[in-house]
Amino acid sequence: MRERMIVALDFSTLEEVKQCIEPLEGHIRYVKVGMELAYAEGPAIVSYLKEKGLKVFLDLKVHDIPNTAKGAMRSLARLGADMVNVHAAGGIAMMAAAREGLEQGTAAGAARPILIGVTMLTSTGLSTMNQELMIPGSVEDVVVHYAMLTKQAGLDGVVASPLEVPMIKKAAGYEFVTVTPGIRPIGADQGDQTRITTPEEAFRLGSDYLVIGRAITNAKDPVATWQSIVQTVEADRK
After folding, report:
1. Within 10 Å of residue 45's Cβ, how many Cβ atoms?
2. Residues marked as binding for substrate?
3. Residue 227 confidence (pLDDT)
4. Which residues bind substrate (predicted)?
């Protein structure tokens, strides 16, 4: 289960990352590098984390014309990340081009990174989607639609709220990977997320990977918080 729980490193400097992960070494297995950290530290941050023996989800949400997305993924493939993503809203042609670029950039004999599509950000609620983005329908219907476009483009799975995972699995198949942010252990601050669950609930709903950030990285005792989450999840799975 530890390899399926990804700790989000929502920092802007390498020094902050070191302060966070050094106490957690030997406990965590997978981390997420988002835009803030990647833009601040560049490709070297991925190398540093890989040298620490960690798997890396490089969360840059590529969204551009197909040719640019293809080139971006070709470059990202060379960094050694284990998972990368695009915005499903970019459409089938863009997502397919991104997959092709990722395959082209992956070294011979190496497994290409897992490629997933972002459906709807977990900070986006119905009102924002309908009124601001002018996308009609329910959040759930739009997420499943994006998931099916993602599958049609040949990607491995999607990023979505845990609440939408059962519908995605039903529509796209059990093997279709679901990566779920919006994870909050009991007692944790909700922050800017609106579609959230606890870690054990997310796994019960069928999530393949959980992304957990501030609940761990902002905790007074990150190791104790991590161990508590792991114990709760493992007890729930028995």
Report:
1. 23
2. 10, 32, 59-68, 122, 184, 193, 213-214
3. 95
4. 10, 32, 59-68, 122, 184, 193, 213-214
- Binding-site positions: 10, 32, 59-68, 122, 184, 193, 213-214
Instruction: State which amino acid sits at residue 81.
Output: A
d(CA 238, CA 235): 5
Nearest to 84 by CA among 187, 175, 69: 69
> Model-level pTM greater than 0.85?
yes
Domains annotated for the chain, with CATH where assigned, are 5-237 (3.20.20.70)
Residue 204: partners with Cβ closer than 8 Å, 6 or more residues away: 236
Q: Is 18 annotated in the active site?
A: no
169: left (phi over 0), alpha (psi -120 to 50) or beta: alpha
Q: What is the mean pLDDT of residues 57-78?
A: 97
Average pLDDT, the chain: 93
Active-site hit among 59, 82, 156, 208: 59
Q: In the structure encoding, which two tokens stand for residue 108, read together?
A: 């011979």
- 50, 52, 55, 64: which is the annotated catalytic residue? 64
d(CA 199, CA 112): 28
